[in-house]
Amino acid sequence: MNIKRFNASLIVLTTTIAFAVTSLVSADDGYERYRNHPHFAPLPAMPPIPAHNSMTPEKIELGKMLFFEPRISASGVISCATCHNPALGFTDRIPRAVGHEGQVGERNTPTVLNAGFLGAQFWDGRAADLEEQALGPIEAPVEMAMDISAAIDRLNSFSEYRERFADAFPDESAPVNPDNVALAIAAFERTLNTPNSPFDRYLQGDLNALSEQQKRGMAAFVDNGCQACHRGAILTDSSHHRFELPGSTDEGRYLVTGDPADRFAFKTPTLRNVALTYPYFNNGSVDALEDAIQLMAQQMLYRDLDADMIADISAFLHSLTGEMPQFTVPALP
Ligand code: HEC
Ligand code: HEC
User: Fold this and answer.
1) pTM across the whole model
2) Distance from residue 293's CA to the centre of ligand 1 (Å)
3) Which of 80, 116, 280, 321 lies at a CB distance of 3.0 to 4.6 Å from 190, suitable for a disulfide?
4) CA 91/CA 87 separation, integer angstroms
């Protein structure tokens, strides 16, 4: 090829590339104000890991076994996975949890997906983190109803558990203990994250990851003020707000603090995977996402939304369903 022709085609080529790059960068769908909203952020692949609970493969595997282990319940048939069922979005899809001897608890089971990102655990925020949360359900009379020392005795009766605790917590003389049960379960839970939802891909620059309706819903979510409370990567402020559900007598955060200002206040739940985690609210009394959106608008924002806007917001909330964690169900001893 003669040099001149080569140079000419090189120039054409570079201009084409430069044009393609600029149009990629400057391309917009008219929603950039929303896409760049400071209250929105893509979900990181992993939540923060506390310094005292490193995530070793041995500890995660043990925590997974304990999450599925029904023999640390009094009946021997209820595990964490009974209510936080992986096939049901790590919740149970019933209004209020059913635990030991069929007792119905007061509250709806939240998902444990992305729970490592939460600033507080439970509807009333009574546990600060996953480590503090983990032993609660084993001992709760309406959940697994098991005395924790009896649970430890049961685990100690299996040589496989004795070995696995020793591997996960090397250098400890009595590794099968309640603290280590909590540490292992928490380490496993921190692997249950759902990144790469359509909304995350959209925030990261794939403008086609959301449909037009989902983009309208995102705008309505912001313009109506939903992000005042549902914000950040997991769309919660980890704070408590008063919300009175028809027919509910649950006083929420007040039961923890005794402060009258906290009466009927509940923690803002994550909206990640909310399309999978019906029924909604602290007592699971609302089945349809559309009805949940309208109740929120009425009680939190003092307005009624029309049916089209509700459908748009619902479509947007469906874009928050991410990739489910992949793991093999453990074989227990
Ligand atoms: C009988 C059903 C049941 C069982 C068994 C159960 N949970 Fe739960 N879980 C619930 C309910 C109901 C709540 C909400 C309770 C509340 O807020 O007062 C909850 C809350 C949680 C939360 C807080 C999530 C959030 O969004 O605040 C985590 C984490 C959790 N459970 C993990 C576990 C682990 C780990 C186990 C096993 C050791 C377990 N659960 C066993 C029903 C259950
Ligand atoms: C003032 C804070 C606040 C605002 C504003 C707000 N929410 Fe909420 N949201 C909450 C709290 C708190 C709850 C939990 C209420 C309960 O169950 O007691 C909640 C629950 C929800 C739920 C149910 C989630 C579940 O898992 O049960 C959905 C869906 C929801 N909000 C969507 C919205 C939408 C859409 C908007 C805007 C129209 C909105 N929220 C505005 C605080 C807020």
Assistant:
1) 0.92
2) 24
3) 116
4) 8
